[in-house]
Amino acid sequence: MKLNSVKLALSAAIISAILMLLLTLDAMYMGKGLRLISLLGGVFPGYDISWQGAGLGIVYGFVTCFVYIWLVATGNNLLIDWKGFKKAKKAARKKKR
User: I want to staple 73 with a disulfide (CB 3.0 to 4.6 A). Which of 3, 51, 90, 96 is the partner?
Assistant: First the structure.
């Protein structure tokens, strides 16, 4: 079954952006997840425990998740097409006999 790469990536990216916002807000108000935020701050420049960091977290979460999920779904579709091409080629050989 082929996947719609853009729709899958968009839905996952929206969820990822919301979770990055919630992670930052949880760290700001509850003091939880501070180590995770410091690790993510090393990967995403400017991401920290602040409102600016929350905004950057939304952007970083959306963009990175969209790109990775789109690549995985597109790769999946290419593999499905390649497998289908191999099956069609095999069927064509049998038909010639």
Answer: 3
